[in-house]
Batch of 2 targets.
Target 1
Amino acid sequence: MSDSHTPLLTVPLDALHRELGAKMVPFAGYSMPVQYPAGVLGEHLHTRASAGLFDVSHMGQVEIRGKDCARWLETLVPGDIIGLGLGKTRYTVFTNDQGGILDDLMVSKLADDHLFLVINAACKHEDFAHMQAAIGTQVEMRMITDRALVALQGPKAAEALGTLCPDALAMTFMTIRELDIAGIGCLATRSGYTGEDGWEISVPTDRAEELVRKLLALPGIMPAGLGARDSLRLEAGLCLYGSDIDTATTPVEAGLSWILGKRRRAEGGFPGDAIIQKQLAEGPSRLRVGIQPLGRAPARAHTEITDEAGNRLGEICSGGFGPSADRPVAMGYVPKDFAAQGTKLKLMVRGKALDAEVASLPFVPHRYFKG
Amino acid sequence: MSEMRFTKDHEWIKVEGDQGTVGISDYAQHALGDVVFVEVPEPGRTIAKGDEAAVVESVKAASEVYSPVSGTVTKGNQAIVDQPGLVNESAEDGAWFFKLTLSDPAELADLMDRAAYDAYLATLE
């Protein structure tokens, strides 16, 4: 909840953003850089060609400690956390009793009794309260408020970070480890949300600006804002909580069935398990799909999707112009009979029915470093 | 060519006789960011003052271009449809959106001149 009288929170890098000429906007209660002087298009293209550095310190960082903490977290998420290897990171979601998604998150296993979570800014207090209420007596949990979080993303990220921290290069996609980056102790995952290789780096607040200045001084790295982060993740076919997934969508409908491990599918044991297992067995009634507008006009969120005869099928959940795709790109929910790649659709944009078709995701191939 | 006049929605119009040329201001293109899509009206379309006449979209958002005056469209600028980035390069010059024949030139009196528009922009910061 926010109201106009609540002052915006600032991130530890606020002064640096302003020094770099960022345009700051309110986002999830924080004043955040939406773009720098290069602009959304320039920052997006630079990230795909070289590397972008994003401040995502508004996101929640949580640590959970205690015997069986993986087993307890599994009571809230459908992912396989017990089976997650040491030093590995996994994408999952919190579900509700209807199988809807309360938030999506990254879970990393630092030790069998120590998990590290990154949760969405807009959901972090609800997520924490939800975990506290459900498993707070079984495990010890802490919202980490003394660390910033930055994402270094792009094909030149490895070469650049490697000059400050050769150990980072030994990591593969979706792993976590403590790194000494130019003398600054950080906790990093080789992950991100752009479809590119890169790292998300958790750094103590009092060293954050020093770290970011060192990273920005490396060749090929440009600061990039939330605007580029959004267009990058959309091209990569990744879900934005609140737009593409929410409490009214299940992981199966969202095309995230892959996050359910084999054991979890069979055993259940998470909120909404019966509904999700039924959808897995029978197929969901609707699905999130990639949608390619065939003309040049972008179709934004909430654009109505119809069949060729004009019957309503659903809505675009995320849509815009894909700078690397160099054309409009979108995702939306359609009935399962209309979810096959190549299915012809119409998008109602400003009263006109524009041609589109179901496209495979991602729009731009992922380039993760899998070793 | 007459002087440029502006709306509070950041459109401009230049008028010669009863022929007007409409675009968006430099302030508007800067606020939008990189323009990636433009839609201009078809010749022959009759529009009233304040009607949505054209569309301009950046990576992040879509905006309408409202007609500063009433009239009949005579031409849309195909160049900015083909190269939307021109809007960022020359918003108040080559990257006009459409031309129209004014039906009520008296409406021009409601618009701001450059000095008044600059003063208005100063209130927005």
Target 2
Amino acid sequence: MRILKALLWACVALLGAGAFGFLALQRGEHVSAGWLLTAALCTYAIAYRFYSKIIAAKIFALDPARATPAERLSDGRDFVPTNKWIVFGQHFAAIAGPGPLVGPTLAAQFGFLPGFIWIVVGVALGGAVQDCVILCASTRRDGKSLGQMAKEEIGPIAGFTALVATFGIMIILIAVLALIVVNALRSSPWGTVTLGLTIPIAIIMGLWMRYVRPGRVLETTAIGVILLVVSLYAGRWVADSPALAPLFTLSAVQLAVAIVIYGFTASVLPVWLLLAPRGYLSAFVKIGVVVALAGGIFILLPPLQMPATTRFVDGTGPLFAGKVFPFVFITIACGAISGFHALISSGTTPKLIENEKDARFIGYGAMLSESLVATLALIAACILTPGTYFAINAPAGLIGTTVESAAQAINQWGFVVSPTELTALAAKVHEASLLSRTGGAPSLAVGMANIFAKVLGGEGSMALWYHFAIMFEALFILTTLDAGTRVGRFMLQDLGKHIWAPFGRVSWYPAVLMSSALVVGSWGYFLYQGVTDPLGGVNLLWPIFGISNQLLAAIALCVGTTVIIKMGKAKYSFITIIPLTWLAIVTLTAGWQKIFSPDVKLGFLSHATSLAATVAGGALPAGANTAGDAARMIFNDRLDAAVVAVFMISVMVILIDSALLWSRVIRGTVPCVSTEVPFTARAVPAQS
Amino acid sequence: MTTLANPARAPLLERVNAVIRRIIGAPDFSAYLRHQSVRHPNCTPLTEKEFLDEQLTARYSTPGSRCC
């Protein structure tokens, strides 16, 4: 039996290695998505079976006889012992946001291979390790949050840095996500109407669950899903109506203002009215679409049109500037390693775990599933021809605003695409134009529509599927945006009460309005900056988001390493130190380049200098209509440089703070005491 | 009340319902009632509306229930 098992694992390893080898060595031909999926699934299986075992067995020695917080502190509310499959489902639904869809799509500008390798290797050695270690550590500490653990395990400086980092990443995340929605809906009456209708749909659901059928979540959500389909057709109807279509054909700035107003309103309205029903709807649709996408790709195994690597690995890419190292590791955060997950792994999830042993399956396993979603998104983006992909994703500053200029610019980069092809594709998805829809959502939607239309509905259904995909992505993003704004408001009130006590009163309207306005104003500022950027804004905001998310991951891995060392398991601390070292190298290099690179497309400061030189020469830079605009652009560059600098300094502070503590614990000057809640045997309860 | 006291005996549809609700993150009022009736039989439990308000407010005020 043992020999059989060893043989089986050897086969899995060989198969995975073979698939990787094929991907690395193939030349010219279009590779089937099947090779990527084989390489990914084999790596996941090996990583789960062997690598996660080190965390479960050697480090934490997860013990099924040990009572979990869900059992000891059972309160029927947050602490509820729950079946492992259900916890897996809710953990997966909570961690899988728009990030794993957008990042890989953007990173496809380097070709499919760099992003793919990082997604698969990064998750096995980094992301899944982080999620699992934090989940185990938090489960052993009554479900404490990452911030609390950073404070108690490392020290108050680390705790404060974690808090500020969480707030900072939230602001940048919301800004960049809102920008993606704006670029997807700009001059698209169909998309705008469909997404706009999701707001009244959520409100109807909220009222229904409150007053008509209290507590009937599922039935209400089912009605909501039907209404979503209706809104999809309503959108088409409006887009076809000559009288109504112009009313809903909005410019980027108009959409940005609408989203800011929405974010503010959602943050001050009662949760049951808008946020909660919207969250249910989004989670429902999310799981449905992810399963459908996986099904479609596994059935079709489409050939990838994108080459393994493109010439843009040299740093001249149109979507965002910067070489493949370090920028592929910044662009793809969610899907490979995402610091945000540490908040979930130390939030709702540890309070539900019934049996400690489940933490491996939930922490490590759910992250592997998210990595699979990222792989699927990468595949969906890479089945477009590179010419189409760059036409949709390159900013107007580089390819102009007509199909002719776009085709010409892209042909010069060495990718073949004709103006008629681009016009035909836009017509097929019922849009006036697909050019320069930076942000990744539309190209992913075209890829998804291709897959869905092939499985169900045929060519004629492309427009419906495209708008369904756009609605799904935007719905999903707005859910993160409104919930994030509200959470940001609470965090700000919590921080602000130390300065002025009444500011912290969560049900005092002036404080609520003020803090909401501050949060919305912060991300709205970055959003406006992105929307008015002639290079599309993504070039500007996504790398900052990547750096901030990886910073949070670095904090989480510092907490993890500290916990492991204090348990007296220093010899196994390589498990968190490997990804931590890599992230430190990557974030600091990327941050340094974003600030100081002499390339004006990459470095904020050199860009500011070149703008100032243009102004000094008596001209106005592209995208500026007045001298005031130009001055604002220069200020923004310096502000962005400062934001990145703050993130970099935070990484260094927390690394130094932790490293000092580790050396003290290892040298014995600080006692090596674990802060785990002592062992209590599991009572086998009569019922949960 | 039998279905409340023992979830395993609840009809299939109700169990499926409970699973999906948990996954999409909806608060589980019947689990709360079950918990109260076993652990705190002498206390008056919150009404469904109070319970939902309390749970939703908590969920949307701390990071840790949703991601990027």
